[in-house]
Amino acid sequence: MQAVTFEQVSKSWGSVVALGATDLAIPAHQFTVLLGPSGCGKTTTLRLIAGLEAPTSGQIQIFGRDVTHTHASARGVSMVFQSYALFPHLSVAENIVFGLRVRKLPQAVIDQKLKHVIDLLGLRQQIDRKPAQLSGGQQQRVALARALVADSQLCLMDEPLSNLDAQLRQEMRQELRALQQTLNLSVVYVTHDQIEAMSMADQVVLLNAGRVEQVAKPVDLYQRPASLFAAKFIGQTPMNIWPLDGHHLQSSTLRVQPPAGAKWLGVRPEALLLNATADQVFEGRIEKIEYTGADALVTLTSQGLSLIARIAGEAMTGLLGSSNASIGVGWASSAQHWFDEHGA
Ligand code: ATP
């Protein structure tokens, strides 16, 4: 069962194409993350699902029902925004049940739902406070509680953690993920933060300039990027990518065997090995070492190639201060990624 299906859905504003004609399937009861750089169309996609924007063309289904022309309030969807969008003059409890009151649910039902969600999100101490008297994390929990209390089949979240500090963001990531699993929710979550995407998602939809680049599980997105864009976008330090055309790589001592049609070779920084035996080895010169504690980024050059290796911190200790030194650099054949002239 799909929570959301796009059939050739597009959205333009005048000449700005926010989303080109797109087919998309978002599975029910999974955590799906829309990931991509600023302006790629993530928020537009989410707002199209919510019914806050009408598509320029195409059909949108939610749980198999055509909702293309259905008003946002009748789509059975709840939404959590980056800004939390809480009413400042209402208490935590009043904020959470606001939508239930609008729907004129019986008081007993409202009370029971409120109690459940307040316990779930640990907000009991705060129920009488106003949003201004809460920390950012607590405000985010209230926004979440308000979305959950609606019992909608589908929960949409637009960068809900981006206003929190790093520590809290990490805690909330785990909490959100646990909630989604416990409640068996279908979540569509927008972020430009790949760590968030990789750590939370069942499925990542990677967007680029209004197009879907790749739909994959985090591990597959990392290990089998379908395009140069995906390869460069995913990874803490960008993948090393070299053009093969008339390049030193083929004339050097490397035993690189590009498959037919390959125009680019990619190797992740963490797959580069120093001073080790590997399938592909050549001499490089250390240009720069950036030591961060847990690991170090080593910038190397060899025969006009520039590359970056990410090495475990301990392994670096012997190399510190050895800028300009010559060193063996290599990688396993299995760590090679090939891309054709179209970047695929
Ligand atoms: P960000 O991460 O910066 O929020 P995003 O991936 O969510 O970006 P969108 O907000 O979906 O991107 O925007 C996609 C494109 O559509 C951008 O070029 C944006 O400028 C444009 N756009 C979005 N909303 C409108 C609008 N109401 N009118 C005109 N252009 C818009």
UniProtKB/TrEMBL annotation:
Keyword Ribonucleoprotein: no
InterPro entries the UniProt entry points to: AAA+_ATPase (IPR003593), ABC_transporter-like_ATP-bd (IPR003439), ABC_transporter-like_CS (IPR017871), ABC_transpr_MalK/UgpC-like (IPR047641), Mo/tungstate-bd_C_term_dom (IPR008995), NA-bd_OB-fold (IPR012340), P-loop_NTPase (IPR027417), Transp-assoc_OB_typ2 (IPR013611)
Gene Ontology cellular-component annotations: ATP-binding cassette (ABC) transporter complex, substrate-binding subunit-containing
The UniProt record lists the keyword Transferase: no
Superkingdom of this protein's organism: Bacteria
UniProt keyword terms in alphabetical order: ATP-binding, Cell membrane, Membrane, Nucleotide-binding, Translocase, Transport
Residue ranges of every copy of the ABC transporter domain listed in the record: 4-234
Name listed for the protein in its UniProt record: Carbohydrate ABC transporter ATP-binding protein (CUT1 family)
